[in-house]
Amino acid sequence: MSRVPTTRRRGRLAGLLLAAALALPAGCGSGPSAAPPRPLDDGRPLVVASGADLTTGSGAGIRSHLIDRWNADPHHRKAVLVELPWAADGQHSELVGALQSGAADYDVVNLDITWIPEFAAAGLIRPLPDTMVDSGFLPAAAATSRWQGRTYAVPFNSDVGLLYYRTADLAEVGLKPADLGGYASVGDLLSVINQHGRPIYTTQLREYEGLTVNTLEAFWDAGADLVDAKGRYIGTDNGLRKGLEALRGLGVGGTTDQRSLDADESDSLAMFVQGKQGAGMLMRNWPYAFNRLDAGLPPGTGFGVTRLPGVAALGGQSLAVTTGSDHPDDARELIRFLTGDSSERALLDAGLPAARTSAYDPRGITCGTPSTSSVEVDRQGGKERSAVTAAVRRRWTEVLWCALRQARARPASTHYVPFSRVLQREAHRFLLNPTGTAEQQAVDDLPGELGKALGGR
Fold first, then answer.
1. Domain holding 154: CATH number?
2. In this structure, is residue 29 part of a structural domain?
3. CA-based Rg of the chain, rounded to a whole angstrom?
4. Which interval of the chain is the signal sequence (predicted)?
5. For residue 73, how many other CB atoms are within 10 A of its CB?
6. Do 18 and 145 share a domain, yes or no?
């Protein structure tokens, strides 16, 4: 098994490395107190650090399977996968602490695309040959792999926010899937359904990165930018008010389930599957949820997915070689394998958007047409699980391809994480009291706080 779970990972990792060392022939020392000379090849496996894999509810996910494929070749240096805390915030803290202190022997790290500038500027990851990010990658994903003109990471999987719906519930309020793409924002869509007087939408509004994404999408829909291309704060009082008004349009406690205020991606998915208190009609989530819904919805419950109304944030992870790796050449070869055409296709089949164009076979895809706007999985026959046909899978791929091409990247900054934490804090405080004084407080506080965060102060 090539996956090391989050719990007890340091102890098991140490055991793996010790076992590898003990399997080597003993070195010849010059005396009892002399350290044995380091062998030219210590036999130590490559260690890959990555967040938890959400493509499966339990057991090994697609990343672990890809590591197993690599290990099946006897000519490859073996690799082990170490799973970090599932939430992006926890992953970031653990990776930075481990790499700065040297407490973990990570060779390859799977980074959220927003962290690449920070890790590159801090010298935690190595520059890579520009040829590793070739023209076969999605342009938006490729752009995030570079910092200050140099390549530091290779896109592994991409990501984009999508809107999921229960087919029968959508029809109940008089809407068709084709109607969903006609709204400028999620808030506009929810205002139309608001007359039904019950919560029908769930998203991620807990104080973590998911809330940052939801907030940025609301601000972008309102035409309010906070950061320029050089990572500087450019928000205005008028823009902040427009953005907060768009965020208020989610209607928390009205059309948006109140539980979203404490929900992450997994919580939202569970709420949508359960369908209690009306929260099962609409959901903002990532592409991984498509396969999970097909497996987890009650028998006979059909669902569909479409592009998120308005602007959707670009997500994704990229692979980088750590500065402290003793085997950078092997680490680069592993990255080439994990980001090759075959691996990328496997990622897409498992529910993670591939970062390579070849996985989608985009020839003949025309975005903006009915066939690329939404896809439905018909589970009305009472099946325990729908056998997603090749036609449905192809249409799903087309919807995903078009959504990715329209996605917008989050700000590129070496101080993105503190920026995000400030925005989360203020947005959550506002959503808890959207009709009170929280808006003015946010307008007063955000310029100074975000400016300081982006300036590294």
1. 3.40.190.10
2. no
3. 23
4. 1-34
5. 10
6. yes
Is the pLDDT at 110 greater than 60? The verdict is: yes
Between CA 129 and CA 193 the distance in angstroms is: 51
CA distance between the termini of the chain: 44
Residue 377: strand, helix, or coil:
strand
Q: For residue 154, what pLDDT is reported?
A: 98
Give the span between the Cα atoms of 190 and 283, in whole angstroms: 11
Sequential DSSP letters for 9-61: HHHHHHHHHHHHHHTSPPPPPSSTTSPPPPPS---PPEEEEEEPPTTSSSS--
Residues 203, 263: contact at Cβ < 8 Å? yes
Q: Residue 147: which of 226, 231, 256, 205 has the closest Cα?
A: 231
pLDDT the model gives residue 192: 85
Give 5-20 pLDDT, tens digit per residue: 444 344 445 444 444 4
Tokens read off for 168: 């029968």
pLDDT in tens, 302-343: 999 999 999 999 999 999 999 999 999 999 999 999 999 999
The tally of domains found in the chain comes to 2
Task: Write out pLDDT tens, residues 123-150.
Answer: 999 999 999 999 999 999 999 999 999 9
pLDDT higher than threshold 80 for residue 198: no
My answer on whether 144 and 235 are in the same domain is no
Of 193, 171, 15, whose CA–CA distance to 105 is shortest? 15
What is the spatial distance between Cα 288 and Cα 264, in angstroms, rounded to a whole number? 14
Phi, psi angle pair for 397, to nearest 5° = -60, -40
Burial class (CB in 10 A: 0-12, 13-18, 19+), 332: buried
Q: Residue 251 has what pLDDT? A: 82
Amino acid symbol at 368: G
E strand intervals along 254-339:
282-285, 303-307, 314-321
Per residue in 17-44, pLDDT tens?
444 433 333 333 434 344 444 445 678 9
Asked if residue 193 and residue 154 are part of one domain, the reply reads: no
